[in-house]
Design brief:
26% of the residues lie in helices and 29% in strands. The protein is of the alpha+beta class. The protein folds into 2 domains: 113 residues, D-amino Acid Aminotransferase, Chain A, domain 1, CATH 3.30.470.10; 157 residues, D-amino Acid Aminotransferase, Chain A, domain 2 (Alpha-Beta Barrel).
């Protein structure tokens, strides 16, 4: 049985894969002059294990390598080696159901805006983590504020990467939303179109069709693609397109998708209200079934 979790993330029992070696959790440290800490030269993944199997592991490892490449540094570990390390982390920590965080960054070998002689590093952690939102809200729907920050244009940042620096405005937006009594925030893009939540993709339902914004300035999430496949398998039309805020009053249902949030219904976003309808509930069930191996992997 896994040991109970401690309060803080720096003081826990367990093991972390760090640059090819398994080290005790408390010993996995980096220097204060690490390039990533000063210049956000880091990328990460969020993935979950269910019943001892890491869902869509290969896709996550591939994206980690692609994200680092988009930031200009190549990882010396292959997809297969990262996959094996993730499985080892899950095993040595004694977890069957867990959240996992592979992280890649530039180190402290040199300092300055230019990366210089910095070397790439990778760490992989895992911990037991239940629902992202409390159980009741995960079932009955969460409330979203409208974020004061917008997703940047793809010509201003490497928006196809899961880069840590791109989450600064997500942190600010979620903090702002929670301070106002909301659970999360809906973000628009630089054009004013609907984009995503602070850490999840968004979907809408109207007349039996599923609508979702085109991911041209934010991540085309792995969970997003899984849910789209699950919907199509049920004969549901899935429409990827530009969505403007004034359209939101025409949608009947709304939900979020992501590794952390899984499939979470939304009952309101700013002034717009939604029902937790049949299609949302069906896709929530289908996703639960696929990640637990009860239906074929979408």
């Amino acid at each position: 049985m896994a040991a109970p979790q401690q309060t803080t993330f720096d003081d826990r029992d367990g093991w972390i894969w760090f640059d090819g070696e398994m080290v005790p959790w408390r010993d996995a440290r980096v220097h204060v002059l690490t390039h990533a800490l000063h210049y956000a030269s880091s990328v990460f993944e969020g993935q979950r294990a269910y019943n001892g199997e890491i869902f869509k592991l290969n896709a996550h490892s591939e994206r980690l390598r692609r994200s680092s490449s988009l930031l200009g540094f190549e990882l010396p570990w292959s997809v297969e080696e990262i996959n094996a390390a993730c499985k080892e982390v899950l095993k040595v920590n004694g977890f069957t159901d867990a959240y996992m965080r592979p992280l890649a960054w530039r180190g402290s070998e040199s300092m300055g805006v230019a990366p210089g002689l910095t070397k790439p590093h990778v760490a992989i952690t895992a911990w037991e983590w239940g629902k992202y939102y409390e159980e009741r809200k995960s079932a009955d729907g969460i409330r979203l504020d409208i974020a004061p920050w917008r997703r940047p244009a793809p010509y201003t940042a490497p928006t196809e990467s899961k880069a840590s620096g791109l989450y600064m405005i997500c942190t600010l937006s979620k903090q702002h939303a929670e301070s106002r009594g909301y659970d999360d925030a809906l973000m628009f893009d630089w054009r004013g179109r609907v984009a995503e939540a602070t850490g999840a993709n968004v979907f809408f339902v109207r007349d039996g069709e599923l609508h979702t914004p085109t991911p041209d300035c934010f991540l085309d999430g792995i969970t997003r693609r899984t849910v789209m496949d699950l919907a199509r398998n049920r004969g549901v039309d899935v429409v990827e397109r530009a969505i403007w805020p004034e359209e939101l009053e025409t949608f009947e249902q709304m939900f979020l998708t992501g590794t952390a949030v899984e499939v979470t219904p939304v009952r309101s976003a700013g002034p717009w209200n939604f029902e937790v309808g049949d299609l949302t509930r069906q896709l929530m069930k289908d996703y639960e079934d696929v990640v637990h191996g009860r239906i074929p992997n979408a």
